[in-house]
Specification:
By secondary structure, the chain is of the alpha/beta class. The protein has helices at residues 7-16, 21-40, 49-53, 102-118, 139-153, 172-186, 207-224, 242-253, 276-285, 290-297, 328-336, 352-361, 368-371, 373-387, 394-418, 425-443; strands at 58-67, 73-84, 90-96, 125-130, 162-165, 234-237, 257-263, 266-270, 301-305, 316-318, 341-343, 364-366. α4 links the parallel β3 and β4 (125-130). The chain is built from 16 helices and 12 strands. The two termini are 29 Å apart. The chain has 3 domains: 7-53, Glutamate Dehydrogenase, Chain A, domain 3 (Orthogonal Bundle), CATH 1.10.285.10; 58-188, Leucine Dehydrogenase, chain A, domain 1 (Rossmann fold, 3-Layer(aba) Sandwich), CATH 3.40.50.10860; 210-371, 3-Layer(aba) Sandwich (Rossmann fold). The relative contact order is 0.13. Strands 9-8-7-6-10-11-12 form a 7-stranded mixed beta sheet, with helices on both faces. Strands 1-2-4-3-5 form a 5-stranded mixed beta sheet. Bound molecules: glutamic acid. Residues 91-93, 165, 167, 195, 347, 375-376, 379 line the site of glutamic acid. The site of glutamic acid has 10 residues, from β3 and α14.
């Protein structure tokens, strides 16, 4: 429910951003949590502070022309939404996927503002991307696209201005082509302009693993509040990209067993536990499909084309693919099958109805903007290493990530308690993130 003071703010967001359903969904969820804040501290509703937080500082849309291997000219659309820079340079990934529209980037940018605030690190929030579809494109096509995309985007970036990273469809290869083009255009080796870089050109150890590892650290800490752990638990991890792969890796290290994962073509069930080396080979090296995993793994593994992974009975679910991939019906199935915790590795993977089902059932629900913040937090660690021209070991960096996730968990739990909803990590994350951003905005005047 929305507080009556917040109704007109939401109505104005709807009016000003027509058709951007995902953005509306992300804003509504935060505004629902803020009712508790303005009830306790009405001053946060003053000076159009909440209205300002809902309006991006800058939205950039540009043409990305490029040429295919067969000589055809293609046009894609590029975006960067620079949402809020009160805590630091805009920070957030780039997504290349045919579904990307302005509203997608705006929802992701909005989430990123709160997520980044929660990390406690000096990073603002932004997001970007393109409706470019990397699927089936050659290496040369990917490179030419990335170079064209960066040719335009570069004028808006800088280590003190805006620092992108990867997201769906953008990994180390794409970041490499973009960094190369930025370096040519600026004539500067400005390592801090992008994160998620390769280790030989300014990257940080653990950045690749960070989002997945961090999500597992968060859920581990949440489970511990109920005297539980991953040991011996059966887990579902949707997706099979970077976030899913390193979520699976950490769960296996902690003694859990991931029995299913997926991609847009369907899901596989492997009761012996997903063979991670095989999954990495198929998805990371060969850039293949999840059905190939079942074929290579052989008996005991089933591939279900186009099915719902959430139908598989398990103890814990980690949605790690994309937004709104888990609906109310899926949530009811998971609860009926006895799930005890849901941790979001992706951004906003559960629909609002699904979140309500989990909360009503009293199970642990860790929302993406808290649980998946380890990725961007490690990006901030990468920025620190770049600024000091330093490079830390895997152990040191992973330990810092673990501490950051513990702090995020504890802060969300503490704020949820303080605002009268113990165990409600959605409220805790939204309110804790909001307070940090709002206090800084208040200090900096009407900006
Ligand atoms: N795309 C990631 C996210 O959703 C990482 C962003 C970053 O490292 O800047 O948080």
């Amino acid at each position: 429910m929305l507080d009556e003071k917040l109704e007109p703010i939401y109505a104005e967001v709807l009016r000003r951003n027509p058709g951007e359903d995902e953005f509306h969904q992300a804003v509504r969820e935060v505004l629902e949590s803020l009712g508790a804040v303005i009830a306790k501290h009405p001053g946060y509703a003053d000076n159009a502070l909440i209205e300002r937080i809902c309006e991006p500082e800058r939205q950039i849309i540009f043409r990305v022309p490029w040429v295919t291997d067969t000589g055809e000219v293609q046009i894609n659309r590029g975006f960067r939404v620079q949402f809020n820079s009160v805590l630091g340079p805009y920070k957030g990934g780039l997504r290349f996927h045919p579904s990307v529209m302005l509203g997608t980037v705006k929802f992701l940018g909005f989430e990123q503002v709160f997520k980044n605030a929660l990390t406690g690190m000096p990073i603002g929030g932004g997001k970007g991307g393109s409706d470019f579809d990397p699927k089936g494109r050659s290496n040369g096509e990917i490179m030419r696209f990335c170079q064209s995309f960066m040719t335009e985007l570069s004028r808006h970036l800088g280590e003190h201005t805006d620092v992108p990273a990867g997201d769906i469809g953008v990994g180390r290869r794409e970041l490499g082509y973009m960094f190369g083009q930025y370096k040519r255009m600026s004539n500067r080796y400005e390592s801090g302009v992008l994160t998620g870089k390769g280790l030989t050109w300014g990257g940080s150890r653990v950045r690749t693993e960070a989002t997945g590892y961090g999500a597992v650290f968060f859920v581990e800490r949440a489970l511990a509040t109920r005297k539980q752990g991953f040991e011996g638990k059966k887990v579902l991890v949707s997706g099979s990209g970077n976030v899913a792969i390193y979520t699976i890796e950490k769960i296996h290290q902690l003694g859990g067993r991931v029995i299913a994962c997926s991609d847009s073509s369907g899901y596989v069930v492997d009761n012996a536990g997903i063979d991670l080396a095989l999954l990495k080979d198929i998805k990371e090296t060969k850039r293949g499909r999840i059905g190939d995993y079942a074929i290579a793994r052989g008996t005991g593994t089933t591939f279900v084309p186009g099915g719902r992974l959430w139908d598989v009975p398990a103890d814990i679910a980690m949605p790690s693919a994309t937004q709104n991939e888990l609906n109310g019906q899926d949530a009811r199935t998971l609860v009926k099958n006895g799930v005890i915790a849901v941790g979001e590795g992706a951004n906003m993977p559960s629909t609002p109805e699904a979140v309500r089902v989990f909360q009503d059932a009293g199970i642990i629900f860790a929302p993406g903007k808290a649980a998946n913040a380890g990725g961007v937090a490690t990006s901030a660690l990468e920025m620190q290493q770049n600024a000091s021209r330093d490079s830390w070991s895997f152990e040191v960096t992973e330990q810092k990530l673990a501490t950051i996730m513990k702090d995020i968990h504890d802060r969300c739990a503490e704020v949820a308690d303080e605002y009268g909803s113990p165990g409600n990590y959605v409220l805790g994350a939204n309110v804790a993130g909001f307070i940090r951003v709002a206090d800084a905005m208040d200090a900096l005047g009407v900006i």
